[in-house]
Structure formats: structure tokens, C-alpha cells
Amino acid sequence: MPFDLAARLTERRAASLYRxxxxxESPQGPLVRVDGRELLAFCSNDYLGLANHPQVIEAWRAxxxxxxxxGGASHLVIGHSTPHHELEEALAExxxxxxxxxxxxxxxxxxxxxxxxxxxxxxxxxxxxxxASLLDAGLLSGARFSRYLHNDAASLSxxxxxxxxxxxxxxxxxxxxxxxxxxxxxxxxxxxxKGAWVMVDDAHGFGPLGATGxxxxxxFGLGQDDVQVLVGxxxxxxxxxxxxxxxxxxxxxxxxQFARPYIYTTSQxxxxxxxxxxxxxxxxxxxxxxxxLNALIKRFREGAxxxxxxxxxxxxxxxxxxxxxxxxxxxxxxxxxxxxxxxTAIRPPTVPAGSARLRVTLSAAHSSAQLELLLxxxxxxxxxxxxxxx
Length: 390
Ligand SMILES: *Cc1c(COP(=O)(O)O)cnc(C)c1O
Known about the structure:
The chain has 390 residues and is of the alpha/beta class. The chain has two domains: 131 residues, Aspartate Aminotransferase, domain 1, CATH 3.90.1150.10; 232 residues, Aspartate Aminotransferase, domain 2 (3-Layer(aba) Sandwich), CATH 3.40.640. The chain is built from 15 helices and 13 strands. The strands form three sheets. Strands 3-9-8-7-6-4-5 form a seven-stranded mixed beta sheet, with helices on both faces. Helix 2 runs antiparallel to helix 12, helix 5 runs parallel beside helix 6 and helix 7 runs parallel beside helix 8. The mean pLDDT is 96. The chain binds pyridoxal-5'-phosphate. The site of pyridoxal-5'-phosphate has 14 residues, from helix 5. Pathway: Cofactor biosynthesis; biotin biosynthesis.
């Protein structure tokens, strides 16, 4: 049978699920130019405002002069250069773990870690709202794959009772579409009683969470005995690109030997590692970024609640407004855009059916005045949407 791609695309459009890529014509920041218009954006993951930071840019430039622009080969051949090595050592020190291993993307770090640790006969247990890369990794591993109820240690425990072989519990640290924190103390305790390991993907926690930006494990005061496999991504609060896995000497050596997405890919440009070394330094030392961000989060929640918007249980820069219906979420996003604000609607299958939402994300780069503009526009657009005359 021939491929009927047109029918698939038509069906997606009819379901209000069609995706389009806005064209960004400026650097990342609160004020962007998108598809020919200046907009105030509340949708990037650049939580600390480092993606366009002059010192990070300068570190990248200097790195390119020193090391060239390409990684040149995989890490195991001749692509593992001094900046990569220094960044790994700095990330190990930052996370308080013996070693860290650099990956090209978070997607690959997750695929690499899960598939290197598990095989047929083992068990992988995942939160049902985990990031797609973690779910894909679980399926690809060949281990028995089961999803527990969101953030529910009791639901995890019943699955742990039936687990066979090596068992890995896998969770987002901060859930990327909801903004809530994994209940790691409870999940780790459940895993520990059964001798299972815990892997946490803290893509959205590193930077905003913890006293020094060390993410959810720092927030809860947990260590390597609780979370054996800790993943961070560098494309969010770090403002650059790539990812890392931190853990024991043996864990990292296992990944070097067996993680296919680590082995069979070109190393990231060394100059990028130079840039990330600088952003790590800023992330750790410039506490005012976290403090300002937390003040914005608090103010947003007060303002949004006061106008009756349905927020989620989130104390993080991810502040979704739950709408439910995909077409309504799209409409609200469109109304905001007409007023110069960019806030993305997130629809199934990225989120469960019937839970379309506007995913507001806040950044330390936003000013308090910009946040007030968002609240004012939301109040106006929400009224239009509620009264159906939108
Ligand atoms: C963004 C994200 C990833 C993917 O990281 P990339 O470096 O963008 O590939 C993985 N996990 C979570 C939870 C994420 O939010």
C-alpha cells in the first residue's frame, strides 16, 4: 500500500493538533522577533537568561579560536578534548559525584543511560508523565517496561513487587509540562527497600532549584545512595547545549563502554564546552538570578490565581495554565499573540488527552514590568475566551 501522508496530515489538522515552527529571527531573550513581529516571549527554557549572555558568548568565541569549531570524531576515537574533560570534571564537582559524562543532547543521555544499564529480563519503571526521551529509552532497552501513576510511590511499590532482574526507577526531576517536582524522598525510599536504582532526569531543575542551582537532589538533600543516575541537560538553564550523566566511577565507565548514543556519535564542539564552563560558573555564583526568578514565580501565581486561572502544583519556572480543550488553548495563545505576547499552547500527545494548556515559562531575564504585561494581557484574553466572543 502506498503511504497516504496527506490523509495523516489532514487528520492531525482537523484535531487541532497540527504543529508549526515559529521562526525566531533574533537571539533568545524576553524580547524576540518571531515571524516578522516583535514579541514578548514566555516560552523558552532559558530560565536563568544565560543563552545570550555576553560572557558565555565570549567564552564560546575564545574556545573556537583555541580549539576550532568541530569535535572532529567520537569521544573514543580522537574527539575527547581538554575542554570536554574539564567540563566533565566541573560537572562532577558541581553535582558532588565522582564523575560526570558529557553527551551531545539530553535525548541521547537518556537513551544511552537506560539502554546501557538494562537488558531483557530486567525491569524499568517510569512515571507516566516522564519526558518522551525517557519513555523511548525504556522501550528501546528491551527490559520489562511499566509506567506508574504520576508521582505515586504506592503505585511504584506495587510494580516494584513484581519486578525481575536489575530494576531501574526513572523519573523527571521537574516534570517538563507540569512544573511539579518528583516526590523523590518517597520514590527513592520505595526503590531502596527493593534494591532498585533510581535515575532522575533533572533537565529543568538544574539552575532554578537548590541553594546553588544543584537541582532537585540538592533541593531535597539527596545523595548518590538515593539517586544513582543523575542526568542534567545543558540546553535549558545552562543556556548552551548538550547533557551529562553524573554518578559513580563504575556507572560512568559502564556508559563509556556500553552506551551506544555516547559511543557512536561525534563529540560536541569543544568550544561549546568552553561556553558551558562559563555558564556553569555564572549559574553557581550569580544567586540573584535564582532570587529574581523566584520572585517572578511568586508574583505570577498570585496574579493568575486572582483572575481565576487554573494553575498547576508548581513552584518552578514552568507555570502552565490548564485549559483542557486543544482548540481553546490554541485560541488563548492566539489572542495573546495578537497583543504582542508569545506563550505556547501544549497539546496532546505531548500532554495527556483533554489537558491542553498554555505553558508559561519564566526567566531571570524577564523584568517585573514584563511580568505585569503578561498578567494584564492574560486577564483581557481570558475574559474574551470565557465569554465566547473571541
Ligand atoms: C529537554 C528535555 C530533554 C532533552 O534534552 P535535549 O538536550 O534538548 O535533547 C530530556 N529530558 C527532559 C525532561 C527535558 O525537558
